[in-house]
Design goal:
Two copies of one chain form a homodimer. By secondary structure, chain A is an alpha+beta fold. Chain A folds into two domains: 3-120, Sirohaem synthase, central domain (Double Stranded RNA Binding Domain, 2-Layer Sandwich), CATH 3.30.160; 178-366, Rossmann fold (3-Layer(aba) Sandwich). Chain A has nine helices and 19 strands. An eight-stranded mixed sheet of chain A has the order 14-15-13-12-16-17-19-18, sandwiched between helices. In chain A, strands 1, 2, 3, 4, 5, 6 and 7 form a seven-stranded antiparallel sheet that branches. In chain A, helix 1 runs antiparallel to helix 2 (81-104). The termini of chain A are far apart. At the A-B interface, strand 1, strand 3, strand 4 and strand 5 of A face strand 1, strand 3, strand 4 and strand 5 of B.
């Protein structure tokens, strides 16, 4: 894949860095490759040497006086034979720098760290940070679908190990490997859906609907706002949705392509009552900042309306967020105390394969009437 | 945590980059901060602008003529109040660059990518690449144990979501969250260990031994070469090993702190026969290069000796490797055809929480005698 490859190599020396000695040791590695040096020396902050090659590669050696030496090497590489050679050349440059630094520091307690190269500006984006803000690289090798709907950007990317992954506006939603997500948001196998009335909010990937239909409900109604999510998943997430999205109605299910708020309001007015409401709309908002207040209000509204259409002995299932986002999850749990009726809840922590972080799921039910 | 923070921001413009226009738009962002520019222009490869601040930060703007603009900003930050301000300052620099690039490219199909900052040279290392070579950041917040034994480097690091993680010579071995690993390498709950003779090769974290002892075997023998792994895990991986490592012998188990090869040879000579052999020594070697031949030979030797001490109707369990490493796994499966007796095998793919990749486990058994 044509892209800039950014290699890094760091040395923590375990003692002060002698800038001149480090540069004297490393300079020949760059000179051998015809890379020209520019040097900046700070009075109190060490130095920065920049090296440029004739072919457009460049490197930085940053020497921090307390004992960190960081190397960055960035090269643009395509897919040709010369590019494979260039990649090998870059790896060997790092090998040489590493060897010389180890040699220079052979009696010290130094640590070396070399990360897999960052791939920058390629046609396939492999970096989809976790909900708790960590940098993670996926094994994505192809863009299967990439469209903007009126509501969001919809990507379906192919991962070697997880199958196709649905990514909505940059958030990893679900991969074909993630049956455990669907299982968890349906109550982890502890519920009997046969003959029941089920309402699914969102869920455009069809995973929940597909599993529930197998369990012979009386009627499962799914309300998904975005036709393009349904269309993309019908075509490219078939391990998740099976054939359930091939038609918007079936023996025991219907899909309404609508905003769920007016639907919920209508159902509440009509006095409809469901055995199960499954909210697959969105994770708990990460931010607790005032700007996110509207998101929290939306979330409370959905929760409140959902409780209004839920039978007294019904259950409401939803995802929370990454288990590390304790503040956001607490705030969510506080919201549960502010609904029109008193509720109780339980939570479960689940490992969803493609998420690369542990995820919290909630079960909410109406408190028994005295 | 005091460390260099390396921020990146990339723009894929969707068309050729006009270097002068990009620089003219971005230059004021750096000038406002008193960062001095050095410029390198290639005849055919675009340009590189380097900016240095008085406080030791530096930035690179690399403009590739086909339409990639990459920004790198590296600053050393501690934990003081001024450092928090400096972090905000760096974030706002990226915000401004992003805004100006979007403005410059407002009619184009451009894409912008901003990753979580790389933390370089900190006391706590959060980057432990997957077996298939991807860059992943863990939520590690403390070094619990870090020692070199005669055999390997042993680290136990604390992850907020996974609990303590055992890392041997840079490889993530097991976290306290990873009961599913232990479950899988014991046959995924399908075996009856009661009254059985079990041999565990490696397994110094005590996870397998702890689970097997609960199932009342006749005798479980664990052979682990590294006393320091046992000591570290006894102290810091108690969610994994319980109290089973508090003593090296118990009612129905013993731990031999020895190299397993001579032990296996001795058992084979003595005609010992186990119901289960569980090999928790090492993953399948990733590399299939000739330099790794000795690792493969070691692996074949272990396999062969294990089969010699396995009852005719016994089972051998082991981990394979990341499901993506298809070549290495195939080579491993070929080895299974080269043992002293014919064997059959099955495999299972499991999601081990802290691995951040799907993992293959093998069950091997002797072919029924005709």
């Amino acid at each position: 894949m044509a892209a800039a490859r950014h290699r890094t190599l760091d040395f923590l020396l375990g003692g002060p860095a002698r800038g001149e000695a480090v540069l004297a040791a490393l300079r020949p590695v760059f000179q051998e490759r015809g890379m020209a040096e520019s040097l900046h020396i700070w009075p109190d902050h060490g130095c920065l040497a920049t090296y440029v090659s004739a072919h457009g590669s460049f490197a930085n050696v940053r020497i921090y006086p307390h004992g960190l030496v960081s190397l960055d090497l960035q090269s643009y590489e395509g897919e040709g034979e010369g590019d494979a050679q260039a990649q090998e050349g870059d790896d060997s440059l790092l090998d040489q720098v590493e060897a010389r630094m180890k040699d220079l520091n052979r009696d010290g307690p130094g640590k070396v760290k070399r990360l897999p190269p960052l791939v920058r500006g390629g046609a396939v984006d492999r970096y989809w940070p976790t909900a708790d803000g960590r940098l993670v690289e996926y094994d994505i090798d192809a863009v299967v679908y990439d469209e903007d709907s009126p509501y969001q950007n919809i990507k379906i990317l192919h991962s070697k190990q997880y199958g196709n992954i649905l990514i909505l506006s940059g958030d990893v939603n679900l991969a074909e490997s993630d049956w455990v997500y669907t299982h968890a948001i349906m109550g982890s196998g502890k519920e009997d859906y046969a003959g029941k009335d089920v309402l699914i909010l969102g869920g455009g990937d069809g995973g929940i609907l597909c599993e529930i239909v197998k369990l012979k409900p009386k009627m499962a109604t799914m309300v998904e706002i975005d036709q393009m999510v349904i269309d993309g998943c019908r075509k490219y997430m078939r391990k998740t949705c099976g054939d359930v999205l091939d038609s918007l109605t079936g023996d025991c299910y219907q899909v309404l392509v609508e905003d769920c708020i007016p639907v919920l309001k209508r159902y509440a007015e009509e006095g409809r009552a469901f055995d199960y409401v499954i909210n697959d709309l969105t994770a708990v908002p990460i931010s607790t900042s005032p700007e996110q207040e509207s998101t929290w209000e939306f979330l409370r509204l959905i929760l409140d309306l959902s409780m209004r259409v839920l039978k007294q002995d019904g259950k409401y299932f939803t995802q929370g967020n990454c288990v590390n986002l304790t503040e956001a999850l607490s705030l969510y749990e506080q919201q549960l105390g502010c609904l029109y009726c008193p509720v109780e809840f339980s939570k479960e922590v689940v490992c969803v394969p493609s998420y690369l972080e542990l995820w919290v799921f909630y079960t909410v039910w109406k408190k028994a009437q005295p």
